Amino acid sequence: MNDFYIAMGANLPSGKCSPSDTLNAAISDFGQRNMMVESISAFYRTPCFPAGAGPDYINAAVHLKSDLTSKDMLAHLHEIEAKHGRERLQRWGMRTLDLDLVACGDSVLPDLATFEHWCTLSPDLQRQAAPTDLILPHPRLQDRAFVLVPLRDIAAEWTHPVLKKTVIEMCNALAPEVLAEIVVLES
Fold first, then answer.
1. Which CATH number fits domain 2-184: 3.40.50.360, 3.30.70.560, 3.40.710.10, 3.40.50.12780?
2. pLDDT, tens digit (0-9, with 9 covering 90-100), for 24-57
3. What is the pTM of this model?
């Protein structure tokens, strides 16, 4: 069984569902697709990324176990996104549901050189270019409080296989003002 770490986000309603309701519905969908939900983070209100691109997001993270391959897991995540109205119209645009496969255990995919290439792209190129292959761990995981803070709830000691830092260490490396923008929602 593989350990998958999924970052979840939504900032647009899906039909009559609020972003929080959509995240909960997606979590229910995981159990119907050969995926065992091991743990779920709290839900957080986070600023839209990039700044000014839309309403604030609701973000969370989920730890799944499955015998799926990483590519099959990604395909299932895309199917769940589509079920909840996700349209891929704009890179880093507003979304009814965003399910990002951010890590699979200690896998580095497709290889270290490709990971390092995408990890070191300039911010301008990051906005314009999207990889055609699945890159794991997510090449900007370490830079994104909206991913790391929820991930800390469920996998604080998970160690990045390239950077050799735990989720806690990556969170602690972020600027305090960036972390302060990530606000837990009351249940």
1. 3.30.70.560
2. 999 999 987 678 999 999 999 999 866 777 789 9
3. 0.92
